[in-house]
Amino acid sequence: MAGFLAGLKERAVRYSALRWFEALPDLPPGADLDLLVADEDLARLREALGGRPGTIPLDVYTAHGSGGHEWRGASYYPPALAHRILAASRENARGVRVPAPEHAFLSLAFHAVYHKGPASGLPAAAPGGRPRPDPRHDYRAALGEMARALGWAPSLTMEGLDDFLGAQGWRPPRDTLRKWSRVNPWLRRRYFAARAPDEPAGLAAFVLRRAAVELDLVGELVGLIRAHGFTVLDLKRLAAEEVERVAQGTRGGNWAPGGGFTAAGGPPAVLVVAHDPRPARLTRRYRRRYPDMDNGRLVCKRAIRDEINRRFPASRRANLLHVSDNASEAWEYIRLACPEREEAIRARIAAFSR
C-alpha cells in the first residue's frame, strides 16, 4: 500500500482517500480502500497499480464516473462536489491525500445516507427504516466525533443528516436519488413513497446541449422530436443562471461526454417540453435499462443522436440531447428551467384531453 500511494504521488495523480484513512498506509487484513480520482488521471493510477493483481480490494471512483467508475448509474458524488473534494484535499502526516476536515464529514455523511442507507446503522424516523444492527463501521460515532471537531451539531439520524447535507448543498439531484432509491429503501420511503396525482402521462423534457446550439442543430433536433410522435409544447433557451441550475439539478449533475461519445456535448442550453398523447410500452430490453421510464417512445433519444452523429467523424460525435425518464422528472426539469411557464404548459396539456 505504501508503494502504491508513493506511486500516485510520483505520477502527480489527483486523488483523495475517502474514509477510514487514519491508519493508512497500514490497512487491516480484508479491509478495502476507497479512492476518488480525477478522470484525467485514471490512466496514471492504473500505471501505479502495476501489471499483476494483488490482494487488497480497491474501489476507485472518478469525479464524472468515467470508465465505469461510478455507483449505481450515477457518479459517486455529483461532479461539482467531487471536484471540490479533490481541490481541497491535502497530504497528511503519513503521506496520504485526504479530504479537508469539512469535506471528510460531508462526504462520509453523504456515503452513509445515500449509498449505505439502513446498512449504515444510523437511526431513522421513517416507518420501516430500521437500521442494520451490526453495521461494518460505526458511522454515528465517527460522524459525531468529526462534527464536534468542526463545531457542527447536526442530528445524527438519516433524516437529520439529509437535512444538513441539503442545507450545505450536498444533497444529490432528485434524478440521482430516484436511481439510488432502487437499492436504498430509506430513500424510496422518504422521497418516492407516493406518485403525485397531477402528473400527466406522456410529458417529456428534452434538454439540448450547448454543442447543438453551436452546430445550429436546434431546429433539426426539434423536428426529429416531432417526427417521433411528440407535440412540442414549449422551447426555452436557457440564460446563464438557468444553465447552472439545470446542470446541477439534472442528469446527476454530470454533463461530461461519457456514453461512448468522444466530443463534449457541453452543458444544457435549450429545454424542449413535449407531450406524447399515446405513451408506448417499453420493451423488456429497455425496461431493464431504464427502469424509471414511463413511455417507450422516450428511447427515441438514441435514434435522434445516431441520426445527427452519422454525418460527423467519430472524433466529433457528441451526446447532443438528454431526456427526462418520466413525467414526474419532466416537471422537475420544468421547475428548474422555467417555473414561470408551468401553468401555461399544464393548460396546453389539458387542452389535448378536451
Could you characterize what this model shows?
Helix content is 40%, strand content 12%. The protein contains 15 helices and 9 strands. It has helices at residues 2-10, 42-49, 79-88, 101-116, 139-150, 158-167, 174-180, 185-191, 210-214, 218-227, 240-249, 284-289, 300-309, 327-337, 342-352, and strands at residues 15-17, 33-37, 58-62, 90-91, 97-98, 203-209, 231-237, 268-275, 321-323. It has a 4-stranded antiparallel sheet with strand order 7-8-6-9, sandwiched between helices. A 3-stranded mixed sheet has the order 1-2-3. Strands 4-5 form a two-stranded antiparallel ribbon. Helix 1 packs across helix 2 (42-49). The longest helix has 16 residues, at 101-116. The relative contact order is 0.10. The mean pLDDT is 92.
Quick structural overview:
It contains 15 helices and nine strands.
